[in-house]
């Protein structure tokens, strides 16, 4: 850096000295020219006044006035004429100075720059680029590596895109031609210069000025030399420096551009890495959600299977087995898994009657008698019948609450007396539904008689399910009749009425806590439990409604299969 500063200071001093010498030489030449012009102009004015033109010689005052008035014009004319010759000669000399002083591109420096650029590119290609995590702005090594790489790129750019050498080549050609012609035609040049002087002195009339024969050639030679030196120094000192500074600016711009590109690439790589990390996190979250959904679906399926295992178990047998093994289920793997799963659940208001019964049986099998009492009490509220009251009495006896057990048995006996006719009617309903061929109209008439005798039958989950099944059988017959003989308006109205009544019956059954799983089995033609079944064994009374959207929404949500 210090050497560069010293070189720059030396060039500046050289330029200042040359400029100072040029100014002094110009001032001296102008001073000499001005003195000559004053002398020559005064002499010419005096000669004119002495000749007496346009006045007579005898008029002395006129001659003096002519001298005084004509001297400035002759001085200005002499000065302007010779100054114009100097400027013209200076322009010619400046042209030659431009040709000889135009900065040349050094082939050796170009080759060296190209070699260094190629070597830097080779080193850059051999080196592994730094990782994105390592190329942080706070690390000096990474920043230095970026600048080095950027400088290499800038050198490659400069080596690839150099200044056009056409002007240098033309200047070289003209210089060689001029030098060659000058050497060969030296005599002709002398004769030409003599002819030029003759023209200027004689034809142009400069001979009328005293010493014009010496001043004019001297002015031409001085102007040519001065213009040559001025242009030569301008090209050599100033233009060379400007070209060097322009090249440095170009290199710095290339370096800055390469550094900007490197920073941009680093930021893009960091952003890509962050995007990949975010995508990975999203994928992990989605995978976690899928796993959670699968676990929840598996758990729901396991709960349904556990309810199926325990809902029809006799609580007396479960308590007896629990007393023998202390609540630890050792045999029957299905029963053990069902008890383990349901006994870990909480009793909720959303549970159906079947789910509550299975949950209470699981608590009884674990000898958790308090939870079992809560479960059977809830079941007695959902299904007010002799069976629920009897099961509650059994658990109360096991817990030592004999008075409460006696009250539950009394309630069971009262329910048995009240429901005996209903049980008989329900048996007749089942016979009408399952005989071959089914008799849905008989089943519907029996259900209508039950509802008229006991309004509470309208809130019984089982009876309302039987009513929906009878209406499903009737709906299937009407649809088949419409397909065979054409759907009249009366038949369509009857089909719509049957659908409305079946929908209301299913809604009442669900409101009374009927199991959705059982209703889905009756409605879904592709239910897994129906695989291999056909004829009377196939529970298909509600399949006729499977294609109706409102029925599917009512019985849903459907499990994923």
Automatic annotation (TrEMBL):
Please list every transmembrane segment annotated in the UniProt record, as residue ranges.
Answer: 26-53, 73-100, 211-233
Quick check: keyword Transmembrane helix in the entry? yes
Q: Which residues form a coiled coil?
A: 248-282
- Keyword annotations: Coiled coil, Membrane, Transmembrane, Transmembrane helix
Q: Does the keyword Chaperone apply?
A: no
User: Composition bias, kind Low complexity: at what positions?
Assistant: 129-143
Q: Which InterPro entries match?
A: TAT_signal (IPR006311)
Name the PROSITE patterns on file: TAT
Segments carrying the region annotation (Disordered) are: 116-148
In Swiss-Prot or TrEMBL terms, this protein is called: Uncharacterized protein
Q: Which organism is it from?
A: Neoroseomonas terrae
């Amino acid at each position: 850096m210090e050497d560069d500063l010293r070189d720059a200071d030396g060039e500046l001093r050289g330029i200042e000295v040359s400029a100072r010498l040029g100014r002094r030489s110009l001032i001296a030449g102008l001073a000499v020219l001005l003195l000559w012009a004053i002398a020559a102009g005064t002499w010419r004015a005096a000669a004119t006044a002495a000749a007496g033109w346009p006045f007579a010689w005898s008029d002395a005052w006129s001659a003096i006035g002519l001298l005084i008035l004509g001297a400035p014009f002759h001085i200005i004319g002499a000065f302007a004429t010779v100054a114009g010759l100097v400027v013209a000669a200076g322009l010619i000399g400046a042209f030659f100075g431009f040709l000889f002083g135009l900065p040349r591109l050094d082939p050796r420096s170009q080759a060296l720059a190209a070699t260094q650029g190629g070597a830097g590119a080779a080193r850059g290609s051999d080196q592994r680029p730094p990782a994105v995590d390592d190329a942080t702005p706070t690390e000096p090594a990474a920043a230095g590596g970026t600048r080095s790489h950027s400088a290499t790129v800038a050198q490659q750019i400069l080596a690839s895109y150099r200044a056009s050498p056409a002007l240098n080549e033309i200047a070289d050609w003209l210089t060689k031609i001029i030098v060659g012609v000058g050497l060969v035609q030296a005599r002709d040049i002398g004769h030409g210069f003599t002819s030029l002087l003759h023209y200027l002195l004689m034809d142009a009339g400069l001979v009328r000025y005293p010493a014009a024969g010496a001043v004019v050639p001297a002015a031409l030679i001085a102007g040519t030399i001065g213009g040559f030196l001025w242009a030569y120094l301008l090209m050599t000192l100033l233009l060379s420096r400007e070209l060097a500074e322009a090249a440095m600016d170009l290199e710095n711009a290339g370096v800055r551009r390469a550094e900007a590109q490197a920073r941009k690439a680093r930021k893009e790589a960091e952003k890509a890495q962050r995007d990949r990390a975010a995508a990975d996190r999203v994928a992990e979250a989605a995978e976690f959600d899928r796993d959670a959904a699968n676990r929840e679906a598996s758990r729901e399926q396991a709960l349904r299977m556990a309810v199926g295992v325990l809902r029809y178990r006799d609580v007396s047998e479960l308590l007896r087995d629990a007393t023998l093994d202390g609540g630890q289920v050792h045999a029957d793997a299905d029963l053990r898994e069902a008890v383990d799963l349901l006994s870990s659940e909480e009793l909720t208001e959303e549970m159906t009657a079947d789910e509550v019964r299975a949950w209470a049986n699981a608590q009884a099998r674990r000898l958790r008698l308090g939870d079992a009492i809560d479960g059977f009490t809830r079941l007695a509220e959902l299904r007010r019948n002799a069976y629920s009251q009897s099961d509650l009495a059994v658990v109360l006896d096991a817990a030592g609450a004999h008075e409460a057990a006696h009250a539950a048995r009394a309630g069971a006996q009262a329910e048995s007396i009240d429901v005996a006719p209903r049980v008989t009617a329900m048996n007749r309903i089942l016979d009408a539904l399952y005989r071959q061929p089914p008799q849905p109209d008989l089943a519907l008439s029996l259900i209508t008689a039950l509802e008229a005798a006991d309004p509470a039958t309208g809130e019984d989950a089982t009876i309302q399910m039987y009513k929906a099944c009878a209406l499903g059988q009737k709906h299937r017959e009407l649809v088949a009749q419409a397909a065979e003989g054409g759907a009249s308006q009366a038949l369509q109205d009857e089909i719509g009425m049957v659908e409305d009544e079946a929908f209301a019956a299913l809604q009442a059954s669900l409101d009374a806590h009927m199991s959705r799983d059982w209703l889905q089995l009756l409605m879904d033609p592709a239910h897994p439990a129906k695989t291999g079944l056909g004829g009377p064994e196939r529970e298909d009374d509600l399949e006729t409604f499977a294609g109706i959207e409102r029925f599917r929404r009512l019985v849903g949500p459907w499990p994923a299969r």
